[in-house]
Specification:
Arc Repressor Mutant, subunit A; mainly alpha; 93 residues
């Protein structure tokens, strides 16, 4: 998954396939770390493993997850992974 492309797709408002209630805002801008955390979640990594891979504290990963869920208008990490998967598939098209 290309992180820059994913951020561009999210920021221009591509909507996930599960419905309009979960459409990210058009002014959304994910940080590079948020994108890497999102990539880890999409890969199925737990917070502790993401933290180790990124060289940050697990609490920092949790803070990024909270920000991601708020920005993406989703309620859990499964939905974060689905958003990441959706945008990865849009990129492949």
């Amino acid at each position: 998954m290309n992180l820059e492309s994913l951020n561009e797709q999210v920021s221009i408002g591509h909507s996930p396939s599960w419905g309009a209630t979960h459409v990210p805002s058009r002014d959304l801008a994910l940080t590079p770390t948020q994108l890497r955390v999102m990539e880890g979640v999409q890969s199925g990594m737990p917070n502790k493993q993401i933290a180790f891979a990124l060289g940050i504290a697990e609490a920092t990963v949790k803070a990024h997850m909270t920000a991601l869920m708020r920005k993406l208008n989703v309620r859990n990490r499964t939905q974060v992974a689905l958003v990441a998967r959706h945008f990865a598939s849009v990129e492949a098209d």
